[in-house]
């Protein structure tokens, strides 16, 4: 049985493209070694991430993320058990939505909100993540 966790957070300061690429590279290396997969979305200072893998490893990484000084307002959106990975081919999927057109069917504006993003409902964030599900 796998465990998944979705959270949102705010960057303490705007992240440059180079900083995002560095975050992606270090995340891929760490998560591959820990056999974790998932998806990281960033836009306009907001992160949305889905982590999946062995429960203890996901929870350990999440505890580390909660202490990471690059984030604040780290909020759990959803947790649960699942039979298979949503993102089996990636150690960490990443999409810098600031650099991509956002004209996608089913796009959620959760990352466009300038109010507090931590009140996003779990289903709302999951719908956004499903746009990037590699099994489709």
Automatic annotation (TrEMBL):
Transmembrane segments: none annotated. InterPro entries: Acylphosphatase-like_dom_sf (IPR036046), BLUF_domain (IPR007024). GO terms for molecular function: blue light photoreceptor activity; FAD binding. Gene3D superfamilies: 3.30.70.100. Residues 2-93 form the BLUF domain. Pfam families: BLUF. It comes from the Bacteria. PROSITE patterns: BLUF. This is Sensors of blue-light using FAD. It comes from Microlunatus flavus.
